[in-house]
Amino acid sequence: MRRKQILTGIIAFLGLICLLLSTYTVREYEQVVVTQFGRPIGNAITKPGMYFKLPFLQTTNVFEKRFMEWVGDPNQLPTKDKKFIFAETYARWQITDPLQFFKRLTNERGAQSRLDDILDGETRNVVAKHNIEELVRSTNRKPELDSIGEVLGDSLARVFVGRDKMQDMILASANKQAKELGIKILDFRFKRINYVKEVQEQVYERMKSERYNVADKFRSEGQGEASRINGEKDRELKNIQSAAFKQAEQIKGKADATAAEVYASAYNKSPQAKNLYSFLKSMETLEKTFSDKTSVVLSTNSEIYQYLKKSN
Question: Is residue 97 pLDDT above 90, yes or no?
Answer without folding.
Answer: yes
